[in-house]
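Entry 14. Ran structure prediction on the chain below.
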Amino acid sequence: MTSNECVVYDAVVLAGGGARRLGGADKPGVRVGGRALLDRVLGACADARVTVVVAEHRPTARPVRWTREEPPGAGPVAALDAGLRHTAADDVLVLSADLPFLTADTVRRLLTALRAGTVEGALLTDGDGRDQPLVAAYRTAALRRELAVLTADRGGLAGLPLRRLTAGLELTRVPDPVASFDCDTWDDIASARARIREHGHVLDEWISAVKDELGVDLDVDTAALLDLARDAAHGVARPAAPLTTFLVGYAAAQAQGGPEAVAEAARKAAALALRWAQEAQAEQDRPAGPAGTEPTDTGPTDTRSAGTEPTRSGPDAG
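Output, structure tokens:
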């Protein structure tokens, strides 16, 4: 499965629980990089056909379906059962709401591993090799089968650990110590906040946060925009960088275009910035003429033949 394939799956996000190790704080609403943990997870599975969040209703960056386990607080197996009742796809992504580094690429890798053979589930393992059943993709029918077995054996699902459910499944593992990182304590939150501010992550994190905040769902070539900003700053003036990139975005929006429109507007603006820089360099390199005279233009657009007098026009011509 490539990143361009249309993959049909549903997602169930478990966002309940008491967050005892966070002192009872609203864990899904805790912000990392300016975004609620729940919104970060929802962004990673944005292409799910249906996303069900098992928790009390709250504002989210994208629309989802809401449900609750019965009784509330009955545990992850009961919560998963409640979420599955609102899904219909053959495959379902099951996630906790406290995964700050989950990405769409992680989701694709899980679905690819699930569909690579006859397994019934593909789950991440953390840096210590431990299974993470709440960062996983499963065959929906297999989950429903095991839930029915547990209900029949136990008379209900309340209080059951997830390992009782996954023990009956044929699973494959996908190691990923970063995407499997979850935030159970305030130390975990602090570590996550520190990591996204590291040099190698901060720009992508910031762009993702801005897009969420502005409701923008558009993937563009950020390297090209950064190159444009550099050229505008160096070739024109430093304030030209943010203003030019803004105008590029505005022009693409006026054209009602997607990434291609942004790329074309950026190309035109970058070419203009280059021409400005070439003119400035030409002025620096040109020897000064006699006092009161205009120096001969030798820039790249000069079409005069060598040794001829430049043609003048206007009121001073002649």
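The chain has a mean pLDDT of 84. Will compare against last week's run tomorrow.
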